[in-house]
Amino acid sequence: MSFDLCLYLLNRNYSSWSLRPWLAMRVLKIEFETVMLIVGTPEIPDLGLPAADELMRRAGPTSKVPALHVSKRAGGEKHIIFESIAIMEYLAEDYPQLWPSDRYERAYARSLSAEMATSFGAIRNYAMNLRERREFDPKFYNEKVEKDIYRLSSIWEGLRSKAVAKDSDEGYLFGRFTALDAMYAPVMFRLRSYGLRPKIQGKHAAAYVEHMLKNEYMREWEELASHETEIIPRDELYPSTK
Ligand SMILES: N[C@@H](CCC(=O)N[C@@H](CS)C(=O)NCC(=O)O)C(=O)O
Question: Whose C-alpha lies nearest to ligand 1, atom 13?
């Protein structure tokens, strides 16, 4: 059966959630269209304003991105898949390689994806802002960020030290790219923007960050983002108070 896929995104420079399924879809070489909802314009200066709320309603029932609009070419039926993890699961039905093939590795990848989606509040307080390049500033480094970075380091070090031994290793957490790598993608940009890379512990974890930043589709996202000139004021705050 043939479907048209259309992924709704917010400004690439800032939208961490938008990046995750977009990256997964690009790595899987899925054909899809994108609809960019752009904030930071004279008409829609910031998120949270009535004009922005109206724009975001185009995405779907939660007024949030990403949202995957699926239309069945023949029947004209339309579906909106929202929430990043649900989009990953929807894609994985046609592209099972999006998760590890081993049942317990798959369960672990799903556990870690859910953890990424619901935890790590301290590191997520650093807005994803691709244009930002700051030196490490101890003033904004506290125990909570340290704890998040320690947890990320130990997950990445644990998975990468195992994967590195596989003949088929491609540098990702389970060897080849999975949805879990996509879930961590915005963290890589945050680590770079705020001078936090040296805080990652473990040689495999540190190498993983560099590998992700070099991924051709991460770079494609950055390239596309580099053409955006809009400023979303709430995502320019450091540290974030939003
Ligand atoms: N739980 C959602 C989070 C999505 C989310 O918060 N998206 C942000 C953009 S990065 C958004 O749409 N914000 C719109 C707003 O705050 O009005 C998911 O997993 O997709």
Answer: 64
